[in-house]
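Thread: magnesium ion complex, take 2
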Amino acid sequence: MSETTFEPVPAVEPAEPPAAAGTLVMKFGGTSVADPEKIRRVASRLVEAKRAGNRVVAVVSAMGQHTDELVSLAYEVSPQPKPRELDMLISVGERISCALVAMAIADLGLDAISLTGSQAGIVTDTVHGKAKIVEVRAHRIHEALDSDRIVLVAGFQGVSTEYDITTLGRGGSDTTAVALAAALGADACEIYTDVDGVFTADPRVVPGARKLHAASYEEMLEMAASGAKVLQLRSVEFARNHGVRLHVRSTFTDEEGTWIREEDARMLEKAMISGVTHTLEEAVYTVAEASPADLFETLAEDSVNVDTIIQIGSEIVFSAPLEDRTETVAALERLGARWSARDDLGKVSIVGAGMKSHPGVAALTFSTLRDVGAEPRYVSTSPIKIAFYLAHDEVEPAVKALHDAFDLASPEAERQHA
Ligand code: ASP
Ligand code: MG
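Output below.
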């Protein structure tokens, strides 16, 4: 197995001839292509962008919940589907939606071509289910663009250095789009989705949450790592490393959404923090008397995405996504350490570039938690984040109270982008 442990700057073939200005990568999520009517709407949107003079590359996700259905189907057939075959199966969803969009574009009188990840030149390592892009060979896309076509690329997939079909992890179409934007030297990467942008908190929990006009790459990385589902974490990393500006916006309106880009002074001025995120989808593991080096090496061998790590004496506490549970348990068993797991904790994070220059964020955070009777079990921080684990039923009250305490429902919280 050839695995890349991280993908700071995957090789991106220089565009030959240099990419023309006006290349636009537009990515549409599953809800945006959920039925035939929506597929036709996406097609018109692409045609509009093309008629406005852009070279248009579109990346589409599988229709609606199709990927989930394919995954369930696999487990109905086999208790432990082989990762290679699982990738072969679940990569199909994106092929279906991109072929359908190409058909709908043809009906609108323009030329379009759909490509699988492999045909589009997306080369990955060989880690099935979580492959990382190692190279983008974009010549076929360039050729199609040069002959005036709209190019549809199946998201979420590539071909490995051993010529197998791989997938990029759930939500991976975002990463496909960003990688293509980098490889093609696109002006921007537009992520079309069923929400209006990135919010100061989940609007289902905090009805007064505001849409941010702008967020820095670092903030978005922290938010994506702490429960904001709007972008796959790896896509943000990729965008930051290649300086690709992202525009997260609604498929169903023409309104501007949220721009993700380099930090600027306006992000630091107004609000101390940019948002409160939460997730219930992590498990917290406690391991007694293991060497941290052995523990994390073993977890890495099984490609477990470890998040928070806390060492207390000889005990190590770490968190990992619920979806990595099988691999985590397998790794811990192999290690032979004493361990326990709990999945009754949720993680709440407050994130903001302004934290670096405003004292008092921790004081306000913990006094707010005390006032709603929430008891942080574990705490971890970065220069622009404070995250803590709470009992599940304390999570929503804490998110609401923190949103209030940091005044995030005020118009100031939105920031500016121009
Ligand atoms: N269809 C894949 C998923 O559901 C990839 C994506 O939507 O980005 O995870
Ligand atoms: Mg997504």
